UniProtKB/TrEMBL annotation:
It is found in: Cell membrane. InterPro entries: Transgly_assoc. PANTHER family: UPF0410 PROTEIN YMGE. The keyword Transmembrane applies. This is Putative membrane protein YeaQ/YmgE (Transglycosylase-associated protein family). GO terms for cellular component: plasma membrane. The chain crosses the membrane at residues 6-24, 31-51, 63-80. It is a multi-pass membrane protein. Belongs to the UPF0410 family. It comes from Streptomyces violarus. Keywords: Cell membrane, Membrane, Transmembrane, Transmembrane helix. Its main location: membrane.
Amino acid sequence: MEVDGIISAIVIGIVIGVLGRLVVPGRQRIGILWTIVVGIIAALIGSALAGAFGVADTKGVDWVEWLIQIGLAALGVAALDRSKAGR
């Protein structure tokens, strides 16, 4: 992954984190900063997974890559929320 790919993953990660938070039902006990961090991590891992499955570079919008990233962000937000609830 090149520098421009990392920068775009960070920007997209912010959006992915918010979308992932919206997918998780109920109220989350984590702040927006944690949501953004989870989104950035989900975007980076999702891009790597999409590349491994060969769906990262398609003609047009990469819907499968976006769905992978949003799913990972939702899992990350839910996991972090549960870990915060246990404390």
